[in-house]
Design goal:
4 copies of one chain form a homotetramer. The first copy, chain A, starts with a strand and ends in a 9-residue tail after the last helix. The first copy, chain A, is built from 2 helices and 8 strands; from the N terminus they run βαβββββββα. Helices cover 17% and strands 37% of the residues of chain A. Chain A has 142 residues and is of the alpha+beta class.
Chain lengths: 142, 142, 142, 142
């Protein structure tokens, strides 16, 4: 069973647009917020200052089913779907009022960052790997 | 040939994040910015106050190839790939320094908005349709 | 004693910029977030759909003392400093690690919104006034 | 005469909120956008990678007179009001349809950034100072 995390949230006013609903770009911020909460839950931080490892996004997508509005309470479910040597793939679902509001996915890459050099893909450090895979039963590692 | 539009842009500081690059959610705003410029180029506005037609996003996705940084100049190419009875599908590519920085897509739906009612999918009004299809040679209408 | 509310918060990654700290514009969003939480605590919502009353900002300011960074936990203290016939004035302080990170203020106006008319300043409705002033001991009403 | 710069801009959809107007926090981003354009006009960049000088904001404020809406075209006038040894103070006015939409101010500090040390206030480097003061006739230097 893949590792997952649920985050409860309320829509902030500045996340809405003139159509009266949450702007579609904001859902990607919600997904990231839940991702980072999942990392913290695992005893990790995704942006470790002083460490030259980074986690840029390789791809991200959302399908939108129902709009969210100011002050709506909703839940973000983020799930690690796959852990590869140098990448992690998540799925993400937003629920509001018992209905699916949106479903997304995101793939991130592990990179080494050196000053004045381009980011370079690198294997996920073992100590991060073991924490991400801990308690998660049977993640789809490949 | 599908209708397209090119928008030149420079990265603003508030669009970057602590990784020193443009936040991945910002690319969706770039795509929307180019979409709306395309509509204006067609003599249209996508958010017509006083009109009960709206254009919520049905899906949106990006693949990220190269990071953008503060003050980078880049180009957004947005293209109408498909116009259906009630939907429009775009593709979008960002170029920087002669290289593809990211490639995305987005589908929007035409809806009728009535106060205190849920948004309801509706056929694209003919006057919008004709403008979107004008000058576009051979759009993939279906 | 003026009515106040405290909101605990953690810095999200998308709130930082390439300087590695929370972007200065984000503090205004934090202030608004706490303001709306204060209204909810008073049994109110500041954006009541179907009601023609709105609350645009008249002025807003922040002094910045210490930067906030990704995942920092901080507290927002918002306080109603003054309630006038058509305006409300708040003060706002952000605390992090036992130190003041920033201090701000904001004045909002009560306006009547009619379709296709400019917003017009109007007295605060009595039912909102009484709730905002409830439990607040001795607010500086004038 | 203080040095100034004018930037023309159009409101993007993602800059509006559910009240149908530009969110008040966005004006601070407009002010920063014009500031950075002024620096570029002076042959400078405010965020020079590889250099340990930074420019955090010390204070920022706006008074709002008229709302801006989606696709409104407006002008941002930014002006260097004062250059001190370690600080720069700007004023900023937004014009729309021949009227003042908002008026703001911002003070920034010159700091030295060393890894894992707090930012420390430092005199503005001479080469930056001379460029900022060039062509500006009689700036209020003190």
């Amino acid at each position: 069973m893949p590792r997952e995390f649920r985050l409860k949230r309320r829509v902030n006013f500045y996340e809405t647009d003139a159509a009266g609903i949450v702007h579609f770009s904001t859902f990607f911020r919600y997904m990231e917020e839940a991702e980072h909460a999942l990392w913290r839950e695992s005893g990790l931080t995704i942006a470790n200052r002083g460490v030259d490892i980074g986690w840029p996004r390789v791809s991200a997508a959302f399908d939108y089913f129902r709009p969210l509005r100011f002050e709506d309470e909703f839940e973000i479910l983020i799930r690690i779907e796959e852990v590869l040597e140098k990448r992690i793939r998540y799925s993400c679902t937003l629920f509001h009022d018992g209905e699916k509001a949106a479903a997304g996915s995101m793939t991130i890459a592990c990179v080494r960052k050196r000053p004045n050099e381009p980011m370079k893909s690198t294997p996920i450090p073992p100590e991060i790997l073991s924490r991400l895979l801990a308690e998660s039963g049977d993640p789809q590692r490949s």
